[in-house]
Design goal:
CATH topology of the largest domain: Cytochrome Bc1 Complex, Chain D, domain 2
Largest sheet: none
Order of helices and strands: HHHHHHHHHH
CATH superfamily of the largest domain: Cytochrome c-like domain
Number of strands: 0
CATH architecture of the largest domain: Orthogonal Bundle
Number of helices: 10
Structural class: mainly alpha
Number of domains: 2
Helix content: 40-55%
Low-confidence stretches: 1-19
CATH class of the largest domain: Mainly Alpha
Shape: globular
Length: 188
């Protein structure tokens, strides 16, 4: 999201929170960046469609409590009640799953990435189809740039997880492996 747009969207969302506007109105600024139909068209901003509501609640809580730093999300979440967290999470979970971008991976990438998914047991947490479960996120069809940035941040511990599993898994990933995983998962 552009830095010029972010303050206006945060102000709109916070104003909606203060006036108890309906959830749909309050969710509109979120969808402006994260995608109205569940697929983000904004560089660096994740697609939220089909995301696990328990995962979304946890992330919004972490933003609200500043356990995870990601402006403007921290400002947006600061005024959300626990009930708001659940309402937003349920609304996001009801959005259609993201539409994969980039076409199918080439056979060499496919083989490398599938070997990495197996080696690092991605499916044991994120599910057989990488669609998430419970408080674990859907990663299938996520934006490639976002996946790459998230894996890199987990590797450097710049992004602490509420569970250290991702940080531990990412420690051994090389740059080219992160690129392969991100390209493959984004195209599923």
């Amino acid at each position: 999201m552009s830095r010029a747009i972010a303050p206006a969207l945060v102000a709109t969302l916070l104003l909606g929170t203060a006036t108890s506007a309906p959830l749909g109105e309050r969710l509109a600024p979120c969808l402006a960046c994260h995608g109205e139909r569940g697929t983000s068209g904004t560089e660096g901003v994740p697609s939220l469609g089909g995301q696990m509501p328990d995962y979304v609640v946890t992330q919004l809580f972490q933003f609200r409590e500043r356990q995870r730093e990601a402006p403007p999300m921290n400002d947006m979440a600061s005024a959300l009640s626990d009930d708001d967290l659940r309402g937003f999470a349920d609304a996001v979970g009801a959005l259609p799953a993201p539409v994969p971008a980039g076409g199918p991976p080439d056979p060499a990438l496919l083989a490398r990435a599938q070997a990495l998914v197996s080696k690092h047991q991605c499916k044991s947490c994120h599910g057989a189809e990488l669609t998430g479960r419970d408080a674990l996120p859907r990663i299938r069809g996520q934006r490639e740039d976002y996946l790459k940035a998230a894996l890199t941040a987990y590797r450097s511990n710049a992004r602490p997880g509420y569970d250290p599993a991702m940080n531990e898994v990412a420690q051994t990933l090389k740059d080219d492996e992160i690129a392969d995983l991100a390209a493959y998962i984004a195209r599923l």
